[in-house]
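Example record for the data management plan.
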Amino acid sequence: MVCAGSFSPRKRPEIFLDLARRHPEADFTWYGDGELRAPLLEQARREALCNVFFPGPLQSAVLADAFREADIFVLPSIAEGVPKVTQEAAACGLPVICMNYYEPISVETGRNGFVAEDDETYFAHVAALVADAGLRARMGAASAEMAQEWSWATLAPRWQATIREAVFRAQLGCDDK
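Corresponding structural encoding:
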């Protein structure tokens, strides 16, 4: 299981310790840095949680490789805009679990992951994916398929058409005011 982001209170990296306690059969790795990293490393050491890792930040290409080697992406954050990291995880073929406090447009519950409304539902979704390799595979494949729609080759022509239409309408004096 993998996550990437700052170790700040709004990201709730301490949830990884809860997940590690609940699922000793799974490994949990959070890439990033921030004010909570050292205290959480110390807490994991005190509790002898041998399945939780906070290795620090990685360069983008190395992080993408780490995502591709993982089997589930989890984002326990309660404050995001439109989280780019969930798109990156989906593009790497991972099922994604996140919260519904923001707009995770790259996650469709039941298709390529789960959007949870509370912590207990979040934990239940993690448990379901940990327990079911077939579900992980199906959702991961759906993530990769969805990500094809976000490729530059797909999006650039759409943006180009939108911009051309706006310029054309403005030249005719038909722009929306």
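Summary line stored alongside the record: The mean pLDDT is 91.
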